[in-house]
């Protein structure tokens, strides 16, 4: 197959013939004589597009075409050990001639008879987007390689997420941001991006990225002008002609990855869309917070601090209120012993006979419930429990006893209400689906 996408990455359509068509389990695979469709290769997905069957010999009446969607494309190298097996499985082995070194197979939405004249039309906006991002990746990897000597050992051009580069050396976020700046300088310099097919001897001497022993024609993508060389890399994918077309390179994140870093980036239209969406978020926040964008971080931090402080004050007020209620319910004679925050009221330990249960509001803070539990523990000799919730949705609780095994309380609630929960001898916690009256009846009888 003649790879038109390799010769001219800006070509959006071509007219050609289908050289084979195979049905495998209801799916159709074709080969073409020439093609504008880049197949999946080197970390980049296959092009999408449409194929139109010509009614006659390369006629051009658009309304007579039947569009068939291009679903996928894969390049199989005859040098691959499993190539025969792969192709046999797909049932397309017979489509390859004995002397073919590689074959590109396209998955299509319907059968197209071998020999049919077709017009192939590329989804070019989508392809151009990938060209911007792939060329952008070469630029960023090139400047990192030139400055630090590291290589990109894993590249993926995702269509619905970021472009990722796995760099085999450690870089800080600041270092990567400096490389982003450098990469964008290369964009402004609008350097040519060219492809060449050097012969074996030339290749031996050349220093380029992704240098692997390949028994076949190597395609090199070079980003350079007369003043500097940014990158030379073996690559099969379509690229833009000049760095200026990449538009912008934006680094999204840098994370540690297998002893090096994984950089997520975007280029071109995708980078602009990303920056626009982030900008809309910031604009929204300036409206909500009625401040300018440079004050947002400080203001949000101040709000968070204030919320924390208010939550603390609210918790204290809630605790004080409940403790006042607990004190008012103490038997005459011991009503004046309670002091909030003091765990041991009397040196002798709890002085009040019996069990005691206190119900609090559904949104009562867990920490405050624990404080109240400890306060009750210091007063009562029997079992005590603090229950937060309501009859409709049930209760979460902390409970136990200062003198007895607290787990007895959890066991009783589990037995009676199938309540969830457990803990240690000094405190148990859990959840109960029952009414306050039912719960109280069980605890009083313990
Ligand atoms: Zn590449």
Structure overview:
The protein is α+β, with helices and mostly antiparallel strands. The chain has 3 domains: 2-122, Elongation Factor Tu (Ef-tu), domain 3 (Beta Barrel), CATH 2.40.30; 127-286, Threonyl-tRNA Synthetase, Chain A, domain 2 (2-Layer Sandwich); 311-444, Diaminopimelate Epimerase, Chain A, domain 1, CATH 3.10.310. Helix content is 33%, strand content 28%. The chain has helices spanning 4-7, 83-90, 124-148, 173-188, 200-205, 268-289, 296-328, 366-379, 407-417, 436-444, and strands spanning 2-3, 13-24, 27-32, 34-35, 49-53, 66-77, 102-108, 117-122, 152-157, 163-167, 193-196, 220-224, 229-234, 249-257, 260-267, 356-360, 383-390, 394-401, 420-423, 428-432. Strands 2-3-7-6-5-8 form a 6-stranded antiparallel β-barrel. The chain has a 5-stranded mixed β-sheet with strand order 16-17-18-20-19, with helices on both faces. Strands 9-10-15-14 form a 4-stranded antiparallel β-sheet. Strand 12 (220-224) and strand 13 form a beta hairpin. Helix 3 (124-148) crosses helix 4 (173-188) and helix 7 (296-328) packs parallel to helix 8 (366-379). The protein is elongated, with a radius of gyration of 36 Å. The N and C termini lie far apart (86 Å). Residues 42, 134, 138, 233, 235, 237 line the site of zinc ion.
